[in-house]
Design a protein that fits this description.
Blueprint: H1 2-19, H2 22-41, H3 44-51, H4 60-87, H5 102-123, H6 127-132, H7 143-171
Helix pairs in contact: 2-4, 2-7, 3-4, 4-7
């Protein structure tokens, strides 16, 4: 009697598990793992403690930022995109990488960008802002370093945003 109840319960659980969307389950399991990996292996302190010795000392500052930003870009953008395209056979436009409503986006950008530039211009004059940004000090005095740092930050930002607004959103949208 008890054994039969156990078998019935196992069958119901197995049936419920089989009905779950594999892509959604995969994404809901993998996203926290990617975040944990980023937190543990993508830190600047890990780079400084374990990897910086392999590079010239004068590069250690920018490379610690490159490590952090690069790990987020890889874990938050490249890996999720490759998984959705090659494992789950999704087309780029299905996973948020199409042109979308480019006319609306262009209109919003024309309105938004001047507001951001003006706001940033005024905020950047405050001593509190200047004490905090840019995070990597040499980027404040050298245009070449600034551009490298900002391109690295863009990769970080794309990785962070895509992980949540691309991989999670488009990867679970079918359900």
């Amino acid at each position: 009697m008890a054994l039969q109840r156990l078998r019935d319960e196992f069958r119901r659980a197995w049936s419920a598990l089989a009905a779950l969307d594999r892509q959604v389950v995969f994404i809901l399991v993998v996203v926290p793992l990617l975040v944990i990996i980023q937190q543990n292996l993508g830190s600047r302190s890990l780079f400084r403690e374990h990897l910086a010795g392999y590079f010239p000392a004068e590069w250690s500052g920018i490379l610690s930022w490159a490590w952090w930003f690069g790990m987020q870009g890889v874990l938050g953008f490249l890996i999720p995109v490759l998984v959705l395209i090659f494992v789950f056979r999704r087309k780029p436009r299905e996973i948020g990488l199409g042109a979308g409503d480019w006319k609306l986006a262009t209109t919003l950008a024309i309105i938004y960008i001047p507001l951001v530039v003006i706001g940033t211009w005024f905020l950047s004059d405050s001593p509190a802002f200047q004490a905090k940004y840019p995070h990597y000090g040499p980027a404040a005095t050298d245009w070449q370093v600034f551009l490298i740092y900002e391109m690295l930050f863009l990769f970080y930002w794309v990785g962070w945003e895509y992980l949540w607004r691309g991989f999670m959103l488009f990867g679970t949208a079918r359900v």
